[in-house]
Design a protein that fits this description.
Blueprint (H helix, E strand, L loop, with lengths): L1 H68 L2 H16 L5 E12 L2 E10 L10 H8 L7 E8 L4 E15 L2 E13 L1 H51 L14 H22 L5 H10 L7 E14 L2 H5 L4 H21 L3 E6 L2 E6 L4 H25 L7 E17 L2 E7 L1 H12 L4 E5 H7 L6 E2 L14 E7 L2 E2 L3
Parallel strand pairs: 9-11
Antiparallel strand pairs: 1-2, 1-5, 3-4, 4-5, 6-8, 6-9, 7-8, 9-10, 11-13, 12-13, 13-14
Helix pairs in contact: 1-2, 1-4, 4-5, 8-9, 9-11
């Protein structure tokens, strides 16, 4: 351990960077091999089982007719199916055999009738398998590991067997069976290929990374040594230091800030000759002056617009789809509000808070609300044709006196509006159904608008001590109810 520390110290930053990159890559590859290779092997094996099971089920379906009716046409169809499977050249598939059951007195034999694959053609069927087939009550595929021994080679395989059964008068009659052999080596070959590529790429990355880090280390350490020497001079009280480093990166930026710091230290060193220590301590303790918290009273008309049923919808789609849909509808609302002279105060999840100033603020807020509903209705028609997710919004509008100003604390402030009018608008928006606009009676009367509105029973709103008289403007199919 001491030797390693000594080498790292003498090697400097270059050796540390190279060691870090080398160890990181080796560690990443090792962890990847630990988790990825078993996963890949399991995935390939699962796919091989799926292909083999599907193949033997398909060939067994053709075989059942040939074994049951035993006509020339059925036998021809079976041979055609076998040829198609052989021509598909499924990787790892050694062959398929179909056997027909033959009664021989009180015993049964199985006779090979069709198949392909020279290695597996007419392989002996062990008595245990015959006994298992005779006891079969369903056509479920069974599989096991099987070793094929030939004079020249040994092949480890997965063997898939499917009994071919005919049901007659609630009795299961075994007509025969089909058997498929899959070479296990086909799976290991894929893993070996992946590992070869992985090791080759790792070696190349290690070599290139080592060279890259070495040259970066040389480029980085030289100016850092200059900065270190300059810092030592300043610590010794020598402020006549200037760094001329041109690296076009963060090190050059550091050198520039270092030079600025030196200039500030020079100025402070000069100022201390004319300012007492007590004055300097007072300046340091007071710090900089910040913007003051506070605000003023103003009369504004507020519009809250919220996407309906979006919380439940977001549970059924991906996060990226959620963001795309929210941004799509918020963009429509924001454009309409801006075009009517409104100001976006903030986005609260999938809800917009906007304000309109001036005597015509209420009129422009209502106009914005109607245009939002109309434009969303038009866009929803397009999205419905394209089979895309559709959302609607509910809108609340209210006018009143609020406090506008900086709210927060000294290090972080937000310019916003607070007051009863804001709370009422938020509650009206919460009460609005999809495609609906709810506005309190006083605001609607003040606006001078002449829309055909539907009176609401005075609303009891959360946090509001009195009932609020309100109207509803329902926009249907992109058309507002106007006189």
């Amino acid at each position: 351990m001491k030797l390693i520390k000594r080498l790292l110290y003498k090697g400097g930053l270059k050796l540390k960077l190279i060691s870090f990159v080398f160890i990181s890559i080796i560690l990443a590859i090792s962890i990847q091999n630990m988790f990825a290779i078993p996963f890949i092997e399991s995935y390939i094996e699962r796919k091989a089982f799926e292909v083999s099971t599907t193949t033997i089920e398909r060939i067994s379906d053709f075989s059942s007719f040939a074994l049951l009716e035993r006509t020339y046409e059925n036998r021809l169809s079976l041979n055609d199916a076998i040829e198609k499977i052989r021509d598909s050249r499924i990787d790892g598939l050694l062959g398929i055999s179909i056997y027909q059951r033959q009664k021989n007195g009180s015993t049964s034999d199985f006779e090979y009738i069709a198949g392909f694959g020279d290695i597996v053609r007419k392989l002996p069927i062990e008595p245990q398998l015959i006994q298992r087939l005779n006891q079969a009550t369903s056509e479920d595929v069974i599989f096991d590991s099987y070793r094929i021994q030939t004079p020249t080679q040994t092949i480890d395989t997965y063997r898939f067997i499917r009994p071919i059964i005919y049901k007659y008068k609630n009795k299961n009659i075994l007509l025969g069976f089909s058997i498929l052999y899959y070479d296990k080596k086909a799976i290991s070959n894929v893993i070996d290929t992946v590992l070869d590529y992985l090791y080759t790429i790792t070696t190349i990355i290690l070599l290139l990374s080592t060279l890259f880090v070495y040259f970066i280390g040389v480029r980085l350490t030289r100016p850092l040594l200059e900065i270190t020497e300059a810092a030592t001079e300043i610590a010794n009280g020598n402020f006549n230091v200037y760094l001329d480093i041109k690296t076009n990166d963060e090190v050059e930026n550091l050198a520039c800030h270092f030079n600025e710091m030196v200039d500030e230290l020079k100025q402070k060193d000069k100022m201390q000759k004319f300012v007492s220590d007590s004055t300097m301590n007072m300046i340091k303790s007071n710090g900089e002056r910040h913007l003051k918290l506070g605000g003023e009273y103003r009369v504004l008309c507020f519009l809250f617009c919220d996407i309906r049923n979006f919380t439940s919808l977001s549970e059924k789609i991906s996060p990226q789809e959620v963001i795309d849909i929210v941004n799509f509808y918020l963009d429509i609302q924001a454009r309409v509000i801006k075009s009517n002279g409104g100001e976006i105060d903030k986005f609260i999840g999938d809800e917009i808070m906007a304000s309109f100033s001036g005597d015509d603020g209420s009129y422009r807020a209502i106009k914005s609300a109607i245009e939002i509903q109309k434009e969303i209705a038009l866009e929803n028609a397009k999205r419905e044709e394209a089979h895309e997710t559709i959302c609607n919004v509910g809108i609340g509008i209210n006018r009143g006196e609020v406090i506008v100003g900086n709210v927060g604390y000294n290090d972080h402030m937000d310019f916003t509006a607070i007051g009863l009018a804001v709370n009422i608008t938020s509650r009206l928006c919460s009460s609005a159904k999809a495609k609906e606009i709810i506005i309190d009676k006083n605001t609607f009367d003040f606006s001078g608008c002449r829309y055909n509105v539907k009176p609401y029973t005075p609303l009891t709103l959360k946090g509001i001590s009195y009932k609020v008289a309100a109207y509803s403007i329902v926009v249907e199919n992109g058309e507002e109810n106007d006189d």
